[in-house]
Design brief:
Length: 257
């Protein structure tokens, strides 16, 4: 299987093979025997095998039927609970317990999946994901940087984020055309304030960053006036990338009845 299986572009498959980086990821995850660990996209088992060696049981989510068949015939299959299907349709509450989630995420679903996982933040211990390097930099970005944007604000509302490990293309087979990195995300809801209406907050932040070169006044002209912006310490002439996450929380709450 490892020699014959062709990575499928439609599933965004790039299989991790660098043993040094695999070891670094396992040490970052720190799996303990009784932990509830969920691996998204186990592929050919680069992380699955060492994780299963640390655990009584490992949940894996995989969409590729050939890989599911392969996993069922591995030496560590007895420790696996295989959830076959699309992770974007997965109800993570069907897996009981506080979960550590790990995975080498396909680039084409990374953003919608990260947003989906915010729905289950109350059941997550931590998350460690391999992602495109630029996505990790956007997740972890601070105000006044070119990477800071909607992804930064929304995910930092839910998680404390940290870039952990740089991963070059040569660590994969086939090698992607971009660099990757591992991000650690630890739930910490409320660290930048508590929104009264998350749906409004999400729409507000999305609209605020819709045109990065324009001022917050122009981007939110149909939402809010200068007086309301100034009431939460936002200067109307500021661009969105200069506005701290907690100020977006304050503005959202000012607009919530």
């Amino acid at each position: 299987m490892t020699k014959e299986h062709k990575a499928r572009k439609r599933f965004g498959q790039n299989f991790l093979q660098d043993q040094s980086i695999i070891g670094d990821i396992i040490r970052a995850v720190r799996p303990q025997e009784n932990d509830v660990v969920v691996e998204i996209g186990p592929g050919l088992g680069a992380l699955t095998q060492p994780l299963s060696g640390c655990l009584k049981q490992l949940h894996v989510i995989e969409i590729d039927r050939d890989i599911v068949a392969y996993l069922k015939n591995t030496t560590y299959a007895g420790k696996l609970v295989i959830h076959e299907g699309d992770v974007l349709k997965m109800d993570f509450r069907t897996i009981q317990g506080a979960k550590k989630i790990v995975g080498n995420l396909p680039y084409n679903i990374s953003t919608p999946l990260l947003f989906k996982l915010t729905e289950f933040v109350d059941e997550i211990v931590d998350m460690h994901f391999m992602l495109q390097k630029e996505v990790v930099e956007r997740i972890c970005a601070k105000p006044d940087s070119k990477d800071y944007g909607r992804l930064s604000v929304i995910l930092q509302y839910f998680f404390d984020t940290e870039k952990m490990i740089a991963v070059p293309p040569a660590a994969f087979s086939p090698a992607p055309k971009v660099d990757s990195a591992v991000v650690r995300m630890i739930p910490q809801v409320g660290r930048i304030g508590q929104v009264r209406d998350f749906a409004l907050f999400h729409r507000l932040v999305t609209q605020a960053f819709s045109m990065r070169r324009k001022t917050i006044r122009n981007n939110l002209k149909d939402w809010v006036n200068d007086e309301t912006l100034q009431s939460v310490a936002i200067h109307p002439n500021n661009r969105p990338e200069h506005i701290a996450p907690e100020l977006f929380v304050a503005l959202s709450n000012a607009l919530t009845p």
